[in-house]
């Protein structure tokens, strides 16, 4: 009997063990999530865009998503941030598909390089890609040496990104940088610059089903037929930072913020006691410094701007009949142009010469006016105490009568108060008078 129960127990234990082995759950890391994360971006390339893409890639790798779809519409942006995005894409463990869309979108300048950095790509029919040649803000060519350096660097980047697309695509990509050519979506797909043309995201994924991509040296096949699209929008914080950064990626705005901020702080130091000008100055300078941290600014140019402000202050306190003011304006124009019109600055971030001159002249005039007014206030007659009463005017409120000392006395209304007053003449009520002197609480007045 005991042997029977022992055999039954062993059989039961083996049965349970077999069932556990058959139906054990597969580890999550071994599963391939049947979804494609979708990140949509519309605007210039900057650090905020880079951070957004980095978060989406990390989320996709953590959830083991099948792929990432980047819906792109950009006029271009900062070169350094573009190259950082290229590194993010090429080091991603999840395939990245770039779709230039919807209709009417563009992947201009930096957007061209971002599109090429994707493992697969597509465009809507009515879209444009290209025009990646660096130029000055007024449309002219930049310095030949600087131009050659930037162009050669970017050409090397696109050669690496297009080596698997054929010699023709590589040549076109280099021409986009060197000659600023552009292609429509249909033209780009025809020569293999992108993989396909699609009217929608779903059509794009349908056309890319079965497409092979190289992800960190591993060939993978996109199986997009039964996958779910999961949108990964920017968080409210990312949206606010991106929009603020887009606004601040304007050389005119940054210049005005910097100059208004410095002027407001000088006013606060020069006339302490309030807080509004100091608060405004700190906010403006904080925003300007944040923007300068995002832009490829030349700090030697910022130094010239500071020198210009010092020259304005010197003109206010040691008048030179405008010599220092004119020198300050010229220095500020040069500083503004040097600060923002660097070799790595795309056209949309550069400061036109006319704007630099206008900002310098207006700011110099306002700053000089404020400082001259503050300086002149030192010599203004006091408006309180005994000295402040001298010269004030008022009217007689009570007819003056002889006080027996060859003087006449009565009541007058001056500076909002009733005062006892003496005068050399008898004055009638309503007569307009002027304060000549003050002794104690008695005003000595004369007729106006």
CATH-level-2 architecture of the largest domain: Alpha-Beta Complex
N- and C-termini, Cα separation: 137 Å
Sheet with the most strands?
A: 6 strands, parallel
Helix content: 40-55%
Low-confidence segments, given as residue ranges, are 1-31, 135-141
**Proportion of β residues?**
15-25%
**Which class of the largest domain in CATH terms?**
Alpha Beta
* Mean of pLDDT: 80
Gyration radius (Cα, Å) is 38 Å
Tell me the structural class.
alpha/beta
The fold-level CATH name of the largest domain is: 2-enoyl-CoA Hydratase, Chain A, domain 1
SS element count, helices = 15
Count of domains: 3
The CATH superfamily of the largest domain is known as 2-enoyl-CoA Hydratase, Chain A, domain 1
Number of strands: 16
Widest beta sheet: strand line-up: 8-5-3-2-1-11
Q: Report the principal-axis shape.
A: elongated
